[in-house]
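Encode chain A's predicted structure.
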Amino acid sequence: MQATADSTKMDCVWSNWKSQAIDLLYWRDIKQTGIVFGSFLLLLFSLTQFSVVSVVAYLALAALSATISFRIYKSVLQAVQKTDEGHPFKAYLELEISLSQEQIQKYTDCLQFYVNNTLKELRRLFLVQDLVDSLKFAVLMWLLTYVGALFNGLTLLLMAVVSMFTLPVVYVKHQAQIDQYLGLVRTHINAVVAKIQAKIPGAKRHAE
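Encoded structure for chain A:
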C-alpha cells in the first residue's frame, strides 16, 4: 500500500512538473517564464566567459550569501521584536526530499530502457542493418561536422535554450503555415529517399 501511494504521489508530482514546463514554454505566465528564461541565458553566458567550476562556485556563494543574510536578518528582527518565529527556512528543512526504493527502481528501469534502445539503434546504424538509414545517419554526422566547426557546444546549447522558449510560441501563432511548409519538406525528403532506394541496389532488401 505504501509503495502504491508513493508511486501515485510521484506520478502526480511528475504530471504537475510537466504541466508547469508546458506553461513555461508557451509563456502562459510571462513574468515566471521571463525569470526562468533569463536565468538560463545568464547561466549559459556565464559559462561562455568562465569555467564550469567558477560558475558553480559563484552560484553557490551567491545562494549562501542570500540565505545567510536572510537568516541573520530574521534573527535580528526576532530579537528586536522579541518574537519566537523559529527558523525562517523551517518549512523547507522539514520538506521530504528522499526517494524510496521503489522510486529509485522505477527511474533506474526507465534509464535502462532508454540506454538499451539507444545502444541497439546505434548498433543497427553502425553495422548497416538498414543501408538507407545508415546513409542518412552518415549525412547527419557529416552536417554536424560543419556545425561543430562554426559553433562550440555552449553556443549550440544557448541556441537550443532560445529555440525551446521561442519556437513553441511561434508554432502556435503560425501553425497552419508551418504545417504546410513542413508537409512540403517531408514530401521532398520522401522523394529523395525514394530516389536513393531506387539507385542503390539491394537497399530495399537491406531494409527488409
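Residues 130-208 form one domain.
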